[in-house]
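Per-residue structure
===
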Amino acid sequence: MVVGEGAAFRERRFASRLIPRAVWDNRESLASAIVAMRKVVEEGGYQVHGTHLGPTLKVAGYPGNTSAANPAFRTAIMHCMVYDFAPAVDIPPAVELADRARLSRYTDFLRNVTAGSGSYMNEADVAEPNWQQSFFGSNYPRLLEIKRRWDPSGLFWAPSTVGSEAWAVRTAGGEPSQNGNLCRAQAG
C-alpha cells in the first residue's frame, strides 16, 4: 500500500507466528512456509516482517521449564509478524469484525505450516484462535493455577493474558476491544 504524503495511517491489526527451526531444516516445509508468506503478502495485501531468532539449545534451556515463556520460543528461528495499515479514523464494528476475520484467514496459512508452534503475544492478533496455546504453549495450565492462587478474584486483567478468558469486554458491535464494560464471561 502506498501512503500519500500527509495521509494519517496507522498500523491497525497484527498477527504473528513463531517459525520453528525444523521448518527451515526441511526443504518441503520451508517451501510451504515461503508459499504461505507470499500468499499473505501477494493475495492478502498484508505486510510481513520477520525477526530472526537463533537460540542454541544451551541458551534456550535457561531458565529451564519454570519460565512462563512459550516453549515454542526455544525452537523458533523466526518471529513472523503480519500487519496492515488503515486510515486513522473510526471503523464501523461490522467492518472491523470482517477485517479481523480476513486477517485470521490469511494468518491460517502460517499457522498451518507451523503446527504446534505459537505466537508472540505482544505482536499478535488479540483475537488469536486458541490463544492460550499460541501465547503460552504447554505452560498455560501451570500459569493459570498460579494466577488463580495469587489473584483469585481476577483483579489483574489484560486481554489474552493468563486467566483473561474469565472476563469479556462487551461492546455494542461485538468487536475485540479494551474500550467497553468488563464483565464476567458466560460459562460454557
